[in-house]
Fold Secreted protein.
Amino acid sequence: MVRVGPSVLLCLAAVASATKDATFVTDSADAAGLLHQANTLRHVDSANASALYAQVASMSNITAAGDALFALGDLAFPDPSARLFFKQSAALGRPHAQHMLAALTAIGIGSPPAVASAVIYDHFAALGGDSRAAQALGYRALYGLGSPRSCAVALKYYKHRAATVVAESASMAPGLWRKPVSLVNQAVTDPDTDFHKLVYVAAAAASARDGRALYRAATRYLTLMGPVDSSEYVTPRAWLEEALVCGEAAAAAYLGHFYAFGWGVPIDYSRAHALYTVAIDIKGGEALNGLGLLHLHGRGVPQNEDVALDHFDKAALQGHADAMYHVGAILGARKQESLSARYLQAATSSGHALATFAYAQVVEKTSVHPFPRTCDIVVPLYKRVAEARGHPLFDRAVAAFHRGDYAEAHLMYRIVAEEGYLVAQTNALWLQHEGYVSYKDPRLAKRAAAQGSGYAQLLLADAHYNRGDYRMALAAYTVIATSTQTQWKTPGAYKIVAPAAFRLGYMHEMGLGTPASRSSALQFYARAIEVERRFKLPIELWTWKWALLDFFAVLTAHQSENL
């Protein structure tokens, strides 16, 4: 892709602005058409796209001009000149630009940090229809950042954003719910490297006629890469077809999705049905769920909700979260609220965003608790849905990190963090703590810790310890080491829980902030070993020290008696 520097973008915009003659001032249809052309070009030829955006920016169509100015700012970003384009776009009433200005204002880009001004920008953006601005307002209201703490206000805004996410998620595109990369756990994971590894694995599997490995490579590709155009579906489809030839029947279910949803091929419901049928007995319920969708919507087969429910229920019994959601939705429509809620709750526990939204609505309507308690239950559910689609800047941040532009990655994460994404807050904090960037945002650790980031909580506990505030450190480490939260069961939890447990053991051994107790110390040392086996040898050596100390103490006492 040809990239255009910010100075060129400014020049193009200035020329377009100075030449508002009959050549450029056209009707709304022309402006909309040129804007569409520019949007199509921007990812392959940003130079020509920028010229078209500059042309549209000079036209009399205010909406198109505002969108073009925002696009010019997006192309220039993170150069400081981007702020000028965003301000011009915001002045024309474009909510996306207003929201971007809110984020830049909140973190202090182009001006000192001003959270109150950011809230005003986001209020106008939310009124203009920007649901991400609503998400930011919900986050601020939930934690009292620049606005009064209010669960009711947070509920209003998070529910709005969650509803938008649900409405935008009807495409069934693969990779739709990709989780953002956590640098704390996956800093060495490069998406490009992952892709090449998959290609290597698939090539080796094809040579060995290993259908299972081909199938896994294809499904991994679809999950990680999230194809966006037809050409990107060619590779995983070829792997799945080869896997099926090699006897891996599970591949038929995913091939069925290609034809059911038009992933890089013309939609063919009959072929999808045939492929799903091939994999109908494969564990996991993927094919059963696909058949359920065809019958539910009458795609290639007669519409029959009962048949669909039967397929969904069989898939749900095999743990398929999407099938659980559809069973819950059908039962809810049939007024079987109690049973519906159980299925929706099960799908919610599996991380299914659409089920989480539906379950939150059920809880909100049927809760027997007073509103404050209900609000406390429901807001985290809507927040989870609001954040399920990730953020466009996540991919840009990861790309910047892997090409060594750590300052840009840090900036991207800080912007996304203003919408309340915990992984963005933690990633920005990690870049600071590991020394990748010199700028330190002092707010990140407390904000991330307030949302439950174990990494941030560990850093705050370490800060208490290093200051000699042992009582505060002891309390903070104890929360981390003894917590039963889900996050402590993730693959990277050992990086947080084990150090906290070891520090607790040391503090109990030395009597720092608590009476000295070897038994308590040993309990926490054992906890550290339980979480991270590599702690076993150092801790065993450490505890052997006790035997030596006791031996020398007895020896010294004996010598003293002899004297």
Notes: Residues 397 and 409 are 4 Å apart (CA to CA). Confidence is low (pLDDT under 50) at residues 18-26.
